[in-house]
Amino acid sequence: MREFEIWCEGFHSSDGKSGVFFQGYSHGVDLKDACINLAKIDYPFATNFNQDRMTWWGCRIFDNEHDARKSFG
After folding, report:
1. Is residue 61 within 8 Å of 55, Cβ to Cβ?
2. Which run of H or E residues covers position 22?
3. CB proximity list for 33: less than 8 A, separation 6 or greater
């Protein structure tokens, strides 16, 4: 197992906030496994995590900030 950083691409909300979101660190055999493990201990992440689509609140999940920012534009 290895440790992953879990980042989500940004979105624009109705209150004008935007940006990428760091969710935390988690261990897993791959990014999906790490997200599943994070969801077991982080309730806010778990309630908005879609395991099949690998999204959080509809935003794609990445293992680094650079790719999350690049995806957001």
Report:
1. yes
2. strand 21-28
3. 1
Query: What sign for the dihedral angle of Cα 3, 68, 44, 57?
Result: negative
Find tokens 């920012």 and name the residue: 69
Expressed as residue numbers, the domain containing 13 is: 2-72
The total of structural domains in the chain comes to 1
Tokens representing residue 39 in the block: 């969801």
pLDDT tens figures, 9-59: 876 555 655 678 899 999 999 999 999 999 999 999 999 999 999 999 889
In the block, tokens 């999204």 appear at: 55
